[in-house]
Amino acid sequence: MSLREKIAQLVVIRAQGEYLAQDSDAFLHLSRMVEEHQIGGIIFFRGEIYNQAMLYNKLQRRSRVPLWISQDMEFGAAMRISGTTRFTPAMGIAATGNPRNAFEKGRITALEARAIGVHQIYAPVVDVNNNPDNPVINVRSFSEDPETVSMFAEAFIKGVQSQGLVATAKHFPGHGDTDVDSHIGLPVVSHTRERLDQLELIPFRRVIDAGVGSVMSAHIAFPNITEGSRRPATLEPGLMGELLRDELGFDGLIVTDGLEMQGIASHYAPGEAAVLALNAGADMLLLSPDELTAIYQVEEAVQRGEITVARIEESVLRVLSAKIDHGLMRNAEVNINRIPRMVNTRSNQLTADRIARESITVLRNNRNILPIRPDRFPKVTVIAIAAGRTGNVGAAFRSEVENYHPDISFHLYDERTSEQELNAAIASARQANLVIIGSFLPLTTGRSITFNRQQQQFVRQIERLSKPTVLISFSSPYVVREVASADVHMQAWTSLGSHSAAAASALFGASEVSGRLPISVPGMYGRGEGISIPKTILRQDRPETAGLSTEKLFEVNRVMNRAIQDSVFPGGTVAVVRNGILAFHEAFGYHHYSKRRPVRRTDIFDLASLTKPVATTTAVMMLIDEGKVSLDDKVQSYFPGFTSGMKGDITIEHLLNHTSGLPAYRTYVDQFQSRESILRAVINEPLLQPPGEGIIYSDLGFILLGEIVAQVAGMSLDRFLNTSFFYPMGMTDTIFNPARRGARTVSRIPPTEFDRQWRQKMIRGEVHDERAYYMGGIAGHAGLFSTSDNLAAYAQFLLNEGHYGGREFVSQELFRNFRTREDSRMGRALGFDLKSINGFTTAGQFSSDQTFGHLGFTGTSIWADPENDLAVIILTNRTYPERGTAAAINQLRAAIMDAVMEAITESSD
To answer: Measured between alpha carbons, how far is 357 from 92 in angstroms, rounded to an integer?
Structure first.
């Protein structure tokens, strides 16, 4: 190589990983720098997976010496490349308390980077962030504690370098105790060498000993260490050469921070900075504002004797050795076809999701506001405070919160927000039971990480409303000082990637909170603080988090779509619950065969006989626990006329297990079309057999049970359940008489039948069962409507044996009594169906013998298998446009249950 070519090998220039036409100015510039000037490396900034990989290959083909590719990936590959996996910032990683998470973040980041053609990543930050006012490091650092930084940085580096990439420890000798952003100015730190040894240098010593491949310099002046010199460390031989190389024994690649940053560029010309950096000990010159001038002036400096050829060749040797070690001399190109198997895979994303959940840190929970319960806080206002003018900040968080609460009002305060919009936000907060303030201020060059004056004034107005308030910071943990009076302080670290979902699930108890603060907030919180909150409700998540296979669950889609094609029903939904996760929730088909309105997951279905367990049986269990009802109570004590024949011997238990002797079904409505007359007819109905002699599945018995609940509770069945069970459970779309809510609710309800006999119309939004309809839509055997996600919560209540959301609705002992098979010959428990031991069963052949649940005539079902911690909910409108037989729907129920069972990949704990 010529001298100029050697110097060029040390220069790293900028490129965007985007599509570039062959004759575009950007591509021609890059080609010229590679072919003519033979620069040594490229740092990619923003890009897209395939565009960057293809551009990488094109440039490698043009380079005589393979290019060294680097990229800044502190937050995972997605920090720079869209479509890749984004990870929690370093401080959030430390909040998990588990260094293995740092290793996994490093490993996956490197795996994805390598697939796209990256050889070195500029991470991790090993600065000790002990200055709360640091405008540039902040959450990029693991902690204010050097031992914590050391431990997590070492784990991250080992993860990166396990995949053959070079990790970069930055910013030497330490950028954590600055209050100036070196992107826009030159920080000057007055620390002594003794201080650096006691704090800043501890992590650097640790990662150097651990074998980190590269160190990046800091554009910070340390005059008390460099004999009064205010040169940035990047340009100081005493720091980069003597301290880093000689004393600490680092023999890897030293790379400068960007030479275009104002900490350098505002004080030194491009060539001058390059010469000084090389003389200080740098091997790679990153982002000179004028690369060609830098190359020429370094060459002239060598010729003048200001820098030796040996100094240049020392660095060239390191750069070329790295290229050889990484196999670039054999084959520098990446295999595009391998990318889908390595980048943003389900496994990678699951790991990122888990780490995000584990990082959530709650520092205050006054009045036990968390977990948020809709029955305690029926109306919630969410206000996102953001910088910029995009207008979409906080949208992902809003969507996630709406998964857990039915009445959310969302408002955004950014640079576009008008005074009228701010007033609307305040008015909404005034009407709310709870206010959630989300701080979305990004850690961005030139922007404050705290609220500006106008935002502070707005927050003071919210505080004066004296509403229960939650503050969530999606960036700096120090922002809690801005809303010091909030009842809840939660740290979510970033709004990107999985963190909106993680924060929302933590707010409502859908995931465990276990994070601990890796720094201190002066006057408020100490390092290590954090409140643990258990998981109490279902979380919507990927099948793999529940030990299920996504691929195998596709069989559910196939079964449902085939049934729709065969006109078994127009449409439906399926939900699968396992291990506390709503792991599958899909909608299929249409409301009716005209195929104009697709079924959505939030659609409300007529549950038919699922009313029996979900409403009536649950209500009876609750009343028994309260001591207001007993299984041995005689039915005649509630209906004085219920005495003829052997009716006087019938108990509530007989009604629940369908051994009362009452007939299964009577039309009644051809003669009786009022609640009172139908109830009187049931009371007067003769028995078909003595009580307890055998099972006759009977709607009539549950009509009586519904009336008993109303009598004992002193209110209607629906009102008792709404106040005591459905709303506390978060089952706000589980209702009787849904049409009373209005046209918007009715539009979510698929029709059940065109009734040509009694009502002479299409039945939609009112109960399909005629007896329940003429009883005012509220009956113990039918009349309830619900959604599959509401029933998923109910299914978890079943699997939890009577408790949900941190509340015991039914005692475990009583619940077990209700769902236990009393007699091996019986296919029913108290209020529930049981899986048939012999022959065909709609619970499928693979579910355990402990499986219990119920079916509904309209094509609905719920089966819960406690042995496998699994439940399957199916909602359809199979009675539309006319009832037909149940054979096909029963085959479908069994097929879906079996498909779900075969999708299990991990046994339940």
So the answer is: 10
Determine how β-strand 361-365 pairs with β-strand 488-491. antiparallel
Tokens 């036990």 belong to which residue?
368
Which run of H or of E encompasses 149? helix 146-161
pLDDT at residue 821, rounded to an integer: 73
pLDDT at res. 444:
65
How far is the C-alpha of 57 from the C-alpha of 335, rounded, in Å? 9
Is 600 in a helix, a strand, or coil?
A: coil
Residue 201: burial class (beta carbons within 10 Å; 0-12, 13-18, 19+): buried
Structure confidence by residue, pLDDT tens digits, 68-115: 999 999 999 999 999 999 999 999 999 999 999 999 999 999 999 999
- Closest by CA position to 768, among listed 606, 591, 568, 605: 606
Amino acid identity, position 698: S
The encoded tokens of residue 414 equal: 């950014």
Alpha carbon distance 899, 65 (integer Å): 55
Note whether 353 and 541 are within 8 A (CB): yes
Output the six-digit token pair for 372: 């948020």
H-state helical runs in 783-837: 788-799, 812-819
Handedness of CA 755, 758, 760, 763 (dihedral sign): negative
Of 152, 153, 148, give the one whose Cα is nearest residue 172. Answer: 153
Distance CA 333, CA 778 (A): 69
Selected catalytic residue, list 37, 72, 183, 649: 183
Q: Which residue has the tokens 């902690």?
A: 143
Residue 616 in this model has a pLDDT that exceeds 70: yes
Residues with Cβ within 8 Å of residue 36, at least 6 apart in sequence: none
Nearest to 278 by CA among 242, 312, 305, 317: 312
Check the CA dihedral 656-658-660-662 and report its sign.
Answer: positive
What is the distance between the alpha carbons of residues 101 and 436, in angstroms, rounded to a whole number?
29
How far is the C-alpha of 644 from the C-alpha of 778, rounded, in Å?
Answer: 27
Helix crossing, 346-359 with 499-508: angle to 10°? 50
Binned at pLDDT 50, 70 and 90, residue 448 comes out as: low
In three-state secondary structure terms, 216 is strand
Q: Is 430 helix (H, G, I), strand (E, B) or coil?
A: helix
183 is catalytic: yes
pTM above 0.85, yes or no: yes
Residue 257 annotated among the catalytic residues of the structure:
yes
Range from 62-76, 168-182, 312-326, 761-775 carrying the lowest mean pLDDT? 168-182
pLDDT in tens, 813-833: 999 999 987 665 567 899 999
Contact call for residues 495 and 457 (beta carbons, < 8 A):
no
660: helix, strand or coil: coil
Catalytic residue, from 127, 177, 181, 257: name it: 257
